[in-house]
Amino acid sequence: MTVTEESSGPAGDPNPDTPLLDLLAGFISELRNAGLPVSLTENLDAMEAVTHIPLEDRDAFKYALGATLVKNHAHWRAFEVVFEVYFAIQGDEYVIPTEADAGDSGDGTAQPGEGAPQGGGGGSMSGLTPEQLTEMLMRALMNGDQAMMRVLARQAVIRYAGMEPGRPVGGTYYLYRTLRNLDLDDILERLMATAGEEAPAGLTALEERLERDEFSDRIERLKQEIEGEIRRWLVADRGVEAMARTLRRPLPEDVDFMHASREEMASLRKAIYPLTRKLAVRLARKRRHGRKGALDFRSTMRHSLNYGGVPAEPKFKFPRPAKPEIMVVADISGSVAAFARFTLHLVYAISGQFSKVRSFVFIDGLDEVTGFFEGIEDIGEAVHRVNTEADVIWVDGHSDYGHALGVFWEKYGKGVGPKTTVMILGDARNNYHASQSWIVKEIQHKARKVYWLNPEPRAYWDTGDSIVGEYSTYCDDTYEVRSLRQLEAFVEKLV
Amino acid sequence: MIGQEVRFEDVDGVRTALAESNYLADDGIAGVVYLADRLDKPILVEGPAGTGKTQLAQSVAEMAGARLIRLQCYEGLDESKALYEWNYKKQLLRIQAGGDDSDWSEIEEDLFSEEFLLTRPLLEAIRAEDPVVLLIDEVDRLEVETEALLLEILSEFQVSIPELGTIRATQIPLVFLTSNATRELSEALKRRCLYLYIDYPDLERERQIVMAKVPGIDANLADQVARIVRSIRQLDLKKHPSVSETIDWARTLVLLGISNVDGQTATETINILLKYRTDIDKAVKEFADRPDELEAGGT
Question: Is this structure's pTM higher than 0.80?
C-alpha cells in the first residue's frame, strides 16, 4: 500500500514521542488481545526499531513493526488488520454526515493527496451518473491506474455504502452493498470483451487466460481499496479500539475445525505438514537421542592403523532409529464431517512422513483406506475415493463405535504390535449402541500407546450419547483437538 | 557490547546497493536488512523454497564487501560441527612429543590453548577480524534441542568454551537464518531475531528479476513469462514454481529463440517450471484444454 505524505496518520505525527508511544502500547496490547504472542523483548525491539525509521514513511513503519512483532507468517494478516486500524489515515474528511446527503460532504473536503491525480479533486465526481462512474472505473482497471482506482473506490464508497454513524458494525455489510452496486463480475466480463476486440487476431486461449488473471488481480486490488476505505470511515466514526475489537478474528491455529470456513480450511491444510514432520521427529527420536551406538570394533581397529595400532579414536556403530508404526482409526460420520475432512488430510500428511502407516475409516462399519493414500499426489482425489469407495456403512450410516471397533479387532487386530501407536479420532457419539470398550482395552494391551483425539469441546464430553469417558479409561491419553494449537499440544506431549 | 559503525545509511541505500549486487529487494526486504544493521539483530528469513532467501545473504555479503560464512544445518548437526572442536589428534601428539621429563601441568595448560582449537563456522564468524556475514541455512532442519546451540551466539554474540572461557565477538556480524518453515522454530530463537517473510514476488518484481537475471531477454517475453508464472501459481498445486525455476524457464525460452510464448510452447516447456507429474497435468489441462475443445467443436 502506498500512501502519499499529505495523508499523515498518527504514524506521521512529527512531534512528541509520547502520543506515539501510547499508540504503540495500545497497538501491542491489541495484538496480544488478538492472540499474537508478543513478548516484552519484542515490544522493546519494536520501540527501538521505530526510532530508526523515518516516521513519515508509513510502509517502512509497518515493516519495522512487522519484523519485530510478528514472528509467524500465519499471523501476518491479523497484524495487518490491527495495523490498518491503529495507524489508519485519519482526517476530517472521514466524518460520516448525519444527514442523508452523503455525496456532498465527501467531495467537499477532498484531500489534495487523493484528488491530485486527475487535477480537479473529488468535486468533479459527485456530478457523475452511475454509468459514468462505471465507465471511469472500467478505464482505470483497463490501464491499471492505481491512483485513479483509489479515487473511484472512495467515490463508490461514499455513493453506495450508505454508512450511518454510530452503527456497531465491522464493515462487511457496507462492503457488500458497495460491491453489489458496482457489479464487478459484469465489469470483468466487459473488460475481457474489450481486450478481445483490441487484439487484432483475437485472443488465444493462453492470452485470454492471462488477461483474465490480470484483470481479476486488478479488481482484487480495487476491492481492497474499497475495504480499506470503508475501514477508514469506520475507524473515524467508532474509534480505534471499538473497531479493532469488532475485526478481531481467531488466528489460524485457533480456528475451530468444526466451524472453519473454506479459506480457513485451506490454510489449515498447509499448516498440517510441518506438524506431521514434527510428529515424525518426536516419535523417531527416542533412540537416536543417545548419539552413539555400541562400539564398532572393526572400524576402531581400522582407524587405529593411523596411530600405529593404538586405538586412539574409538568408533561407534550408528544407532538404528526406531521405526514407528502408526494406525489411524478415524470417524468420518456426519456429526464430525468438518473434522473428518481435516482428519483425512492429517492422515494423508502422516502417511507421507512415516513408512508404516495404516489408516482406517469408519461410520458404523470400518474399512482400511491405506491404499487410497499411497502414491497419490493429489489429496483431493484420495479424499474423494475414501468418501465414495470405502465400505464404512454397515446398517444405517449412523456412528456405531462398538461395531466399528469390533470389525477392526476382528480383521486387523493381528496387525497391532508392541511398536504400534494407535490413534483413534472421533467424538465417541455412539447413538446409544453398545460401546464394546473391552476392545480398546485389548488394543492397549498389545499396542505401544493408544491415543484418543476428540474434536468436541471438553464440556460436551459424556453428555447425551457421547461415551468418550468409557473409552478413555483404556487409552493412554485422551485429548480435545479442535484447533491446530491443540493438535500441536498433542504432538508436544507425545514425547 | 562493542560499538560499531553503521553499515548502511538508509533503506533506499540498502535497496540500491542490493540492486547493484544483482538482488532486487522490495521495501520489506530492504527495510528489514537495514533494521538488522541498526538493531544488531539476526534476521530470520522464512518463505517458500526458491524465493531467494539464501541469495539474499549472499548478496548482502557482496554488497557490504564482507566474507560469507555459511553453516548448512542438517539433522544431527552438533556443536563439534557448528561451534568448535578440540583437535585431539594434535593434542595426543603434543603429549607424546613432551616426553617423560616435561611438567604435566604445563602440558595440560598447553593442551587447551587456542592452538588446538578447531573453529567451526559459528566460532569463526565470532572471531573474524574482517567483516563477515554469517548465514545459517535451513535452521528448520535442526532438531529442537540443537537449536539451543544458536541462542548464545544470536543474542550475545559470544561463545562459551569451558576450557578457554567466553569468546566475544570482535565485531557484530550480520546474521541470516533461513528456514523453509517445515517446522515451527522455538520461541526463544524467534524472539532473538527480526522476522522476514519472503513470498513469491509480485508480477512487477518478478518481471524485473527475469530481466536482470536472464541476459538477452526482451521486455515483452519477460512480461509474458512473469504473467504465465503468476497464473500457474494461482492453481492449486503441490509445489508452485519458484523464482529460480521462473528464471530457468526464461533462460530456456531465450535459448530456444522463442520470442512469443503461445499455449503450445508453454505446455511443451512446462516441465522446467513444475516438477510433479500431477502438477504438470493439471497446468497443461488449464492452459491447453480450451483450444482443443474449440477446434474439435469447429471441425
Answer: no
